[in-house]
Automatic annotation (TrEMBL):
The keyword Signal applies. Residues 17-239 form the Peptidase S11 D-alanyl-D-alanine carboxypeptidase A N-terminal domain. It comes from Halobacillus litoralis. GO terms for biological process: cell wall organization; peptidoglycan biosynthetic process; proteolysis; regulation of cell shape. One of its GO terms (molecular function) is serine-type D-Ala-D-Ala carboxypeptidase activity. The active site is at S50, K53, S105. This is D-alanyl-D-alanine carboxypeptidase. Substrate binds at K209. Keywords: Carboxypeptidase, Cell shape, Cell wall biogenesis/degradation, Hydrolase, Peptidoglycan synthesis, Protease, Signal. Gene3D superfamilies: DD-peptidase/beta-lactamase superfamily. Belongs to the peptidase S11 family. Coiled coil: none annotated. The keyword Cell inner membrane does not apply.
Amino acid sequence: MTLLLPTFMVEKVKANPNISVSAERAVLMDAESGRVLYEKNAYDPTLIASTTKIMTAIIAIESGMMEEKVKVSKRAVYTEGSSIYLTEKEKIPLKDLVYGLMLRSGNDSAVAIAEHVGGSVEGFVQLMNEKAAWLGMNNSHFENPHGLDGETHYSSAYDLGLLMAYSMKNDTFREVTGSEMYRSENREYSWKNKNKMLTQYYEPTNGGKTGFTKAAGRTLVTSAQKDGMELIAVTLNAPDDWNDHTRMFEWGFDNFETVKLQSEGTVEVNGQSLYIPRDIYYPLTLSEKDDLQATFYRYEQEGDSNLAGVTYFMVGKTPVVEAPVWNERPSQSFFSEVKNFLNRMMGVAPWST
């Protein structure tokens, strides 16, 4: 039996957004489909400052070590920049370090996480670059877990959008990044989230990460959810980033709606039962909805392949989504094997137990 998972062919939005941003580089992306709704130099690699810590956090969360105690090293304590004021030889849960990383942007926390999860900072950086390659972050390279400037430490607005969209599919990450306050069991005071989009400026915000160095400028990644649509906004070197994000979100929510293109289940095509393996949602403007078409192309059957064909969803003559159609629904055990395989690939399940 041949397995083909849905492949998305996402085109850049053809709308003419009546918005401007202060950022040198920016992107607005639909979290579900990955469609780029707006972009400005979004694919150019550049310094990203502490938005790096999104990658550090998701690797730590997926490691399965969140309840383990971390012994803080001298290297972590003396890391320059923003800090949660760890002390040498202090023992603190990895979970608390992840909150300190995401809410207070602790560089000391980033190094402590890296040493515990990766065995060393250098080992953890290798994990970061492997994850970036797996996610298709083609204009990214990491050399540290905190985001301090480095010659080979860079990403793009688009790549950071991919990373945030992926990370927001993890329930623990969503809980961490969406928290306004957190108190570590090692502290007598609470940490307040630095992301003012979440705590102050824009009510639909449900996550994100701030960043700043003199060379990178102000960097910001945020997510927001409204009327069943979740959007990711990224700005790099943006003097007016809070307003940039608010404008992009409002434009996106005002001009797009999430449309269900197909539903999982069995359908009849010319008297034959075929199986659609998953629901597909996609953001469209009102005019795009009017121009939406779907065409099914049947494949010639070869051997024991379960692939019946492919459905192409088009807006006018522009393809937006390609989705496989199967001859029959695979067995539940087959689905379980596929799910376990994907979980291992994404780092949320071990290869052996």
